[in-house]
Amino acid sequence: MPTPPRSSLLNEQIREWMKNASHVGSWFSAHRFLCPGAPVSAQAGLRKAWAARQEEARGTMVTDKEVEAIGQTLVDPQQPLQARFRALFTLRGLGGPRAITWISRAFGDDSALLKHELAYCLGQMQDSRAIPVLLDVLRDTRQEPMVRHEAGEALGAIGNPDVLEVLKQYSTDPVIEVAETCQLAVQRLEWLQQHSGEPAVAGPYLSVDPAPPAEERDVGRLREVLLDEARPLFDRYRAMFALRDAGGEEAALALAEGLRSGSALFRHEIGYVLGQLQHEAAVPQLTATLARQAESPMVRHECAEALGAIARPACLAALRAYSADPERVVRESCEVALDMYEYETGSAFQYADGLEQLRSPPS
Q: Which residues bind Fe cation 2 (predicted)?
């Protein structure tokens, strides 16, 4: 039986999700239903429910022993990468100092992909207690560029202006992806300061983005800004997130054109956004980018994960084809994306199922 369209699941499942969702709601679980085509009332209701579950998760119902067990899975290199990712996103959902401590411990791992996701999750948690470890990662030139980049982006996502001077310092880093990331993070923090008295406008996605969406709504004009390499990167990012929020085939195809942009950082973010959008019109371009051996590994990695999120049969074929790629971050991304594909096409509601696995009775 084919998987029903995500939009058709909303009316039926939002009440059930609000009533029965796990105490550790996950970014994956929530964002898969918060699509631009969903009714605004449904988006708002699910967003409030997810936020409430997040607050519950930060209470006393999760024991120290349970957090430790999830953390041990995350830091154990003998565990399958898929299990470690699920543990990571469970900790991200739980939040708080214990989760930050366990996530921080995993930066000693040798998987650039995992460390990249550690930094991403710390940024999405928006907890200033994660700033010291993120600063350490950004400063550590032994870390892979994609890991340092993600640490810089996470510092911008947290939104604390105390890190502005450090980010300005690394805005001229010799690694271009790190420099561009820190430039964007500085501009995001300055934008937040300039708009501090204004009410926040909630978009259809729960992620904390490196730039606010542009106010422009015309897809054609947004496409022009997106692809204009003479414009500031921050403006192009704003157009990117406005196109994502607009949704639909035209926006997806416009975004996919950005996969040929000159900046590897920009191309990598396009891959991420297309994964959020989950529109199958972008599958050929994502597949072609994944297949380009000369492409930056951080770009290919995001394209692989986007294909896992879109979860159509053509995506499965591409992911299997590159699951043995000589580039480690690419093959690991395909491995994680295949797990994501299984989740998206299966009956499980919760991706970040670390707590559920602990509490499940033995079979």
A: 268-269, 301-302
Report which secondary-structure segment, H or E, holds 2: none
Structure token digits, residue 170: 């690394």
- Report pLDDT for 56: 53
pTM here is 0.83
Q: What is the pLDDT of residues 185-221, one digit of tens each?
A: 999 999 999 998 777 677 888 899 999 999 999 999 9
Residues within the annotated binding site? 116-117, 149-150, 268-269, 301-302
Annotated binding site for Fe cation: 116-117, 149-150, 268-269, 301-302
Cα–Cα dist 128/39, whole Å: 33
Spatial distance between the Cα atoms of 233 and 92, rounded to a whole number of angstroms:
29
CA dist., res. 99 & res. 279, Å (int): 33
CB atoms within 10 A of CB 313: 10
Report whether CATH 1.25.10.10 matches the domain 63-198. Answer: yes
Beta-carbon contacts of residue 228 (< 8 Å; ≥ 6 apart): 236
Rounded to an integer, what distance in angstroms lies between the CA atom of residue 278 and that of residue 276?
5
| Domain covering 209-349: architecture | Alpha Horseshoe (1.25)
Residue 300 burial by Cβ neighbours in a 10 Å radius (0-12, 13-18, 19+): buried
